[in-house]
Amino acid sequence: MNGRLSRRKVFGLGAAGVAAAGAGVIASRSLVEEPVAADGGTAAPFPFYGEHQAGIVTPAQDRLHFVAFDVVTDKRAELVDLLQEWTAAAARLTQGREAGALGAVGGSPEAAPDDTGEALGLPASGLTLTIGFGPSLFDRRFGLAERRPAALADLPKFPGEQLVPEISGGDLCVQACAHDPQVAVHAIRNLTRIGFGKVSVRWSQLGFGRTSSTSRAQVTPRNLMGFKDGTNNMKLEDAALLRDQLWARAEDGAGWMTGGSYLVTRKIRMIVETWDRTSLREQEEIFGRSKGEGAPVGRKNEFDPVDLAAMRPDAHVRLAHPSSHGGAHLLRRGYNYVDGSDGLGRLDAGLFFIAYQRDPRTQFVPVQMGLARADRLNEYIKHVSSGVFACPPGVRDAGDYWGRALFS
């Protein structure tokens, strides 16, 4: 026996513990905290309940399926019901179970299954599901206009960006991260199924090969330009920095967001064909780091102190450094993507940038504005998609649901 229990078998063992708790919340706390993997490795689940949503400081997994939704109902009660149903499903899915109580094969043959079934037999694979609310949700449809946080401001237009409206924005977003792409896709597919008639998919993005480490236990990964990415990223071990730079507080002006965070996404296409013909010296000068070790200019090792004065004024590391923006930090957890070709023999590939912070107005916006105006790397990239979302605090227990404080 390999130490793993299938989703179906584990669900069967725990089915007696499933109880309704509030509208649509069907998974008890004891049920979702039961592990499904005995090997303790990447198959094991992360806890769903907690002060903060999982998928933010959680050690970054290998795969991503990110989706933005438009809400198509104009009834507040239906939106709340959906969030309750999604929360119940997320509590189950993140623990390696099926999305609904009856599962893929346990219901009536004459009815649609409670789960699509493609993850049967697969472990939890470290799945996390993280929800966010976009600025457009706070219009007049649901009576939320007065509750829109000041920090959830529309992003300004940055120099040089070429955004495609159809793959930008959204009322809601869900970030699914896992070590198995099928597990991440399965989760998004089932939330979409549950939301039929209430939400529609606006855009989605698959990602692979995380481009940031969010824990000191993880090595620094590489982006598709071949460079280590996110060397000085905030880490879950940086407790004081996270309190100051990541988590929203009541005094920020939106009490319902206390313990939450603000998410910015950017799809950044890399002109890899041009980059691949650029000399190594030029590549290293553009980034401000060596390509092999990842050491800053003039240093030997990746984590040696950065000497900004030794870099070109338009070097990426220099322009993005917190000291250039009043100490502003971002918690990055982006992913590489390849979306085939553009029909002209060029790869449609790059970085799906994801960053969490306490206030995008004082963190992401000044950093990106500085990069947009002067970064030499802009010759090789273009921003084609953008989104900003308020990610509420975590779900405390089985009687809670995503965003409850917003609708209370």
Give an overview in words.
InterPro entries: Dimeric_a/b-barrel, Dyp_perox_C, Dyp_perox_N, Dyp_peroxidase, EfeB/EfeN, TAT_signal. Residues 220-395 form the Dyp-type peroxidase C-terminal domain. Involved in the recovery of exogenous heme iron. Extracts iron from heme while preserving the protoporphyrin ring intact. This is Deferrochelatase. The termini are far apart. A hairpin with a 5-residue loop joins strand 7 and strand 8 (347-357). This protein has a domain at 7-215 and 392-407. Mean pLDDT is 90; it is low at 1-40. It has helices at 7-14, 29-32, 76-93, 181-194, 239-245, 272-275, 280-287, 316-320, 364-374, 404-407; strands spanning 63-71, 128-133, 172-178, 199-210, 261-270, 331-332, 335-341, 347-357, 381-391. Helix 3 runs antiparallel to helix 4. By secondary structure, the protein is α+β, with helices and mostly antiparallel strands. Helix content is 20%, strand content 18%.
